[in-house]
Structures are given as structure tokens and as C-alpha cells.
Amino acid sequence: MSAVGVLYEExxxxxxxxxxxxxxxxxxxxxxxxxxxxxxxxxxxSIPQDEMLDLASRLGEHIELPGDTREWAxxxxxxxxxxxxxxxxxxxxxxxxxxxxxxxxxxxxxxNKNGASFENAGQLVDVLNSVGLPGxxxxxxxxxxxxFLVTAAQLRLLRLRPLETTQ
Length: 167
What we know:
Blueprint (H helix, E strand, L loop, with lengths): L3 E7 L2 E7 L7 E5 L2 H8 L7 H8 L5 E3 L4 H8 L4 E11 L2 E8 L14 E2 L3 H10 L4 H5 L7 E5 H6 L10
Antiparallel strand pairs: 1-2, 1-4, 2-3, 5-6, 5-8, 6-7
């Protein structure tokens, strides 16, 4: 599935609501102004600039978002990032994705109890790719999990509970 979305105005702000993949719920990002939206859209490298400007002018229409879904995910899911490691447990019922804050690699810090379950590895890879993460790399078995910078919005769309922050 390619990404689909809609741009609309509400309460003096511009919103982009998009669905980035088959297994990922829709997500909305609020832009305080058109210039903020245009600045973000100008970072899209996978579509020509004139096509991007045409998209921005189609307020209220549900449209297919052309180009690379990962670029749309980066724009839609922008926010403060924090480093995490992912681990996939391959259970009889299907893979379970979990994560922890990055630090020294200690396999004991991972637990499948707080993870998100998926029907199969293909679905897991599709969901990871849809939110702008390298699905195949994260889903592979074994090895020392790499560190990835993620946003709370990405974790929510992966059905993982974002980390609690302390003041």
C-alpha cells in the first residue's frame, strides 16, 4: 500500500492526516502555518517540486501521497527522538516486537510481555517500513540489536507504549 492522506485547515492551523501502511492506523500532524508545511514538503526528494506544490494546494481532498513512504513518515512523525534498541521474539502465534532504551546491550532488558504482536514476519516488516524504520534489519534473527532514533509517535503506531518521561 502506498501512503494516503488529506491536508485540511482547522482552528487556524494546517493538518496532515495520513495512513502510512496497511497495518498502521492514521496519524495527524499539526502545522502552525502554511510556511511550516511547505518547508517540510520541500524536504521530499522522491517527488518533483511542482508535484509537491500541487499536493499542498489540494486542501480537503483525500489523495495518494506519491514518492517514498519513509519520507512521508519522517514528516508526519517528526518530534523529539530518543535512542532505542528493538528485539523481536519469534513466538508460535507470530513475532513480538519490543524495545528498550539504548545503553549497554543486555539481552535481559528485553521482554516479550510488553511487546506488540504481529501475525507474521511480513506484517512486522511492513509496519516497521511504514513508520520509516528498516523493517528487514530489525526483524532479522540474532545479532546485537542496533540503536535507532525514534519518536513517541513512531512507537505508538507500532503499538508499543512510549517510554514514561520524568520531570
